Amino acid sequence: MSKQYETVIGLEVHVELATKTKIFCSCSTEFGGAPNTHTCPVCTGMPGSLPVLNKQVVEYAMAVGLAANCKINQDSKFDRKNYFYPDNPQNYQISQLYLPICHDGYVEIDTSAGKKKIGIHEIHMEEDAGKLIHDEWDDCSLVDFNRSGVPLIEIVSEPDMRSGEEVNAYLEKLRLIIQYLGASDCKLQEGSMRADVNLSIREVGAKEFGTRTEMKNLNSFKAISRAIEGERKRQIELIEEGKMITQETRRWDDNKESSYAMRSKEDAKDYRYFPDPDLPPIVISDEWIKSIQDRQPELRTEKMARYQDVFNLSEYDADIITGSKHIADIFEAVTELCGKPKEVANWLMVEAMRLLKEHEMEPEKMCFSPENLAKLIQLVDNGTINRTVAKEVFERIFAENVDPEKYVEEKGLKVVNDEGQLRETIQGIIDANPQSVADYHSGKEKAMGFLVGQTMKAMKGKAGPALVNQIVKELLG
């Protein structure tokens, strides 16, 4: 009988904070910009330059810690993590080893197996390094220090996850907590949220952990799932061949769907950590913690419960809408204007989601005003336009944020309720389709649907379906 193996996974998640300036200087943190234009002597590590801590970084770190049920270290400090790398201008990184700002928390995840708590060992603040750009044409590497000094928090989980599904649920939970707090946009593709996966294998029932490897270069949930599966298989094969697993850092190549060794895994002692002499300790008062607690917004879990309770949405609808803070914000704004939560939810979940998928857009890129969607819902409700026309108008709102009332007026899209005009059109269609009339009289109900469809086509979708059905039935006898 072959052995059964269990995968043990812990994550180190780096999140770029949404401050306007860097952690220890006043340079911009904006993504993009020409290389080395968002820099100064502090973030390029010039001799004699002194760091000054950005208070907003501490507040964001505390807000995330409190939302993740962590304890706050009221005496916290920074340490120097010493290593040489070309994009690390000081030859050390300012981080936190001994007294991180948050510790001993958890988040609860939902998977197909039910609810589970994933422990958070600690959350610490640190500065990001620069970025190496490899120029293959000139066969050289260039350094861009724009990202150097951008504030990060690193969220270190306990080794509590056992599958790719749990890892993705944990990352999704963290991403939504942080986005709802406004602490980061958490865009994996822009590197503002990055996950390193620590993974080991052990026989089912074993108490001891196996030798772990750390995988880097994971910038999408799909890549993380593939990397976990790939590394799990690789380690099981090594164990079954009687070979040793080396504790090392590996780089995942998502195109080749395989990983390769980068370097042997370092321990804290290899970095020669010591307290940073240029930065005083951070003393966090009870009042400061309370002020952050009082400012915490409604997070996704509470929002979902409220949408079901107050707006009578189903659990499924509430889940979809709160899956993006931006969509939830639009939903609330439109509902406040028109007072029809179910109708608003349907437009966002069906038409908006369809257009997002078609245009391969992130929800955050939707920029139409809540007022215009509220007006559209009112036009349908008043019977001014029908749903077919409304979908066409919504596409214009989505693309160009047009005013639906003006657009409907200009394009002549209002429902035609002139019974005389409709009767004339329908009589013409009945006269032109004798076979359909005969089919209807012989009991084929579909024939009537065809005649109604032809009428709607002739009226360019501007006729009221109820009135069309009534007149067709009447004229068919």
UniProtKB/TrEMBL annotation:
Taxonomic superkingdom: Bacteria
GO biological process: translation
Domain Asn/Gln amidotransferase: 329-476
InterPro entries: Asn/Gln-tRNA_amidoTrfase_suB/E (IPR017959), Asn/Gln-tRNA_Trfase_suB/E_cat (IPR006075), Asn/Gln_amidotransferase (IPR018027), Asn/Gln_tRNA_amidoTrase-B-like (IPR003789), GatB (IPR004413), GatB_C_1 (IPR042114), GatB_Yqey_C_2 (IPR023168), Gln-tRNA_amidoTrfase_suB_CS (IPR017958)
Catalytic reaction(s) noted: L-glutamyl-tRNA(Gln) + L-glutamine + ATP + H2O = L-glutaminyl-tRNA(Gln) + L-glutamate + ADP + phosphate + H(+); L-aspartyl-tRNA(Asn) + L-glutamine + ATP + H2O = L-asparaginyl-tRNA(Asn) + L-glutamate + ADP + phosphate + 2 H(+)
EC number: 6.3.5.-
Gene3D superfamilies listed in its UniProt record: 1.10.10.410, GatB domain, N-terminal subdomain
PROSITE patterns: GATB
Annotated TM spans: none
Top-level EC class: ligase
Entries under Pfam families matching the protein: GatB_N, GatB_Yqey
GO molecular function: asparaginyl-tRNA synthase (glutamine-hydrolyzing) activity; ATP binding; glutaminyl-tRNA synthase (glutamine-hydrolyzing) activity; transferase activity
Similarity annotation: Belongs to the GatB/GatE family. GatB subfamily.
Subunit structure: Heterotrimer of A, B and C subunits.
Described purpose of this protein according to its UniProt entry: Allows the formation of correctly charged Asn-tRNA(Asn) or Gln-tRNA(Gln) through the transamidation of misacylated Asp-tRNA(Asn) or Glu-tRNA(Gln) in organisms which lack either or both of asparaginyl-tRNA or glutaminyl-tRNA synthetases. The reaction takes place in the presence of glutamine and ATP through an activated phospho-Asp-tRNA(Asn) or phospho-Glu-tRNA(Gln).
Protein name in the entry: Aspartyl/glutamyl-tRNA(Asn/Gln) amidotransferase subunit B
Organism taxonomic ancestry: Bacteria, Bacillati, Bacillota, Clostridia, Lachnospirales
